[in-house]
Amino acid sequence: MINVVYNNYSTLAPSSGAYRGAYRWYKKFHNAGYDVRIRKLEENDLKVFSELEIDIRSQVNSHSLCWLIIYDDKQKRKYITNESREISFEDVVGLFRTRQERRVEMQEILARLHATCSLASSK
Prior knowledge:
The protein is of the alpha+beta class. The protein has four helices and four strands; from the N terminus they run βαβαββαα.
């Protein structure tokens, strides 16, 4: 299950509150067909984050926590925060797909590519 956790107490949270941004991410995952849950950061989450090796400390301000954490509770180190810059907004949902889903998509792409190459070589 994908978890979207927001932290309104972060000093880096938007002035409108972290829920608004978290809800936007929730809808993005929900519309893509994921089993997703949105909730406020709670104290027991810190233990879960430690077990899943999720670092929620801010890289911008060392005395603060990130205001948005999206993670998969079935896989270690599969998370992003509001400070993640190495992946685009459009690609985030794909990051949380299972290996099987990615494999099927890659096979479909390769089959289409092979069909296109076969058509081009027969002309």
